[in-house]
Q: What sequence folds into this?
């Protein structure tokens, strides 16, 4: 990025040393702490140094790009998926049912699912060949539900090896946009918020459910075709969040539930005497 700036703006300087870090391919540059430190370094430079070396507009652009926070991937609950399956089963819409189960079982990207052909399915070794992936290399995405495999075999019974697995009502291969539109429509009929639904969220759902079930993160990385395990590691944050929410909901270690009659000052940690208005240790007013 920095190489595109006019030469008069970029002589050797502390500023350029800092900004050059942006152009490095080191994946750790995306870690929040690293970005925060870079912003701090730049902000501490004298204002005239910035003005003499690079325009404020360009500095603001860099700071904005560095200061972005990463949102955790959104996933669907088993209840959400079951509601969607119930809707398509009532209409005997086998294609949509297979699509939902395929995305959930394999964790494939919607574009990968759209490009899957009948000949890519290996029923003996229980996987589908993913020919076109984001990582630009072939991989296998495995199936782990024998009942789904039997259902998939039934679904493709009258298809040719070269046929696409999922065809639209116009007998053309689905696009990512088409798959998402279909899933949103199903979600709406199932009483779910269609804004929460996209084909890619089934990929997130696969990863989260696999982690919650105890599947090794390296195996999930290979299944999803991530080039770096740090990408897959984002899903562990979701699982940690789910675990905390679950514990807080049930609160199995509550002192009151264990019949321990004790309260403690949140400021200093001292045990509070019954009916006290202030902490005897730090004087904190008690609520």
A:
């Amino acid at each position: 990025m920095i190489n595109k700036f006019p030469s008069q703006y970029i002589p050797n300087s502390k500023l350029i040393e800092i900004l050059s870090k942006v152009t490095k391919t080191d994946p750790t540059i995306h870690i929040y702490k690293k970005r925060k430190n870079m912003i701090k370094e730049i902000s501490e430079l004298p204002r005239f140094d910035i003005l003499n070396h690079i325009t404020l507009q360009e500095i603001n652009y860099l700071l904005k790009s560095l200061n972005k926070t990463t949102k955790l991937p959104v996933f669907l609950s088993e209840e959400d998926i079951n509601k969607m399956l119930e809707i398509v089963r009532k209409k005997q819409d086998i294609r949509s049912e297979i699509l939902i189960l395929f995305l959930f079982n394999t964790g494939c990207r919607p574009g990968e699912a759209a490009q899957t052909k009948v000949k890519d399915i290996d029923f003996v070794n229980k996987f589908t060949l993913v020919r076109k992936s984001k990582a630009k290399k072939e991989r296998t995405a495995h199936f782990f539900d024998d009942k789904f495999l039997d259902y998939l075999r039934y679904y493709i019974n009258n298809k040719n090896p070269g046929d696409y697995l999922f065809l639209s009502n116009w007998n053309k291969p689905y696009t990512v946009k088409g798959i998402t539109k279909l899933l949103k429509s199903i979600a709406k009929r199932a009483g779910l918020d269609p804004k929460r639904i996209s084909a890619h969220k089934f990929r997130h759902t696969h990863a989260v459910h696999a982690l919650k079930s105890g599947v090794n993160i390296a195996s999930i990385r290979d299944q999803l075709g991530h080039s770096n395990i740090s990408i897959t590691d984002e899903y562990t944050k979701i699982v940690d969040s789910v675990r905390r929410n679950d514990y807080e909901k049930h609160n199995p270690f509550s002192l009151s539930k264990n019949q321990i009659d004790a309260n403690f000052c949140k400021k200093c940690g001292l045990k509070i005497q019954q009916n006290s208005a202030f902490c005897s240790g730090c004087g904190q007013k008690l609520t």
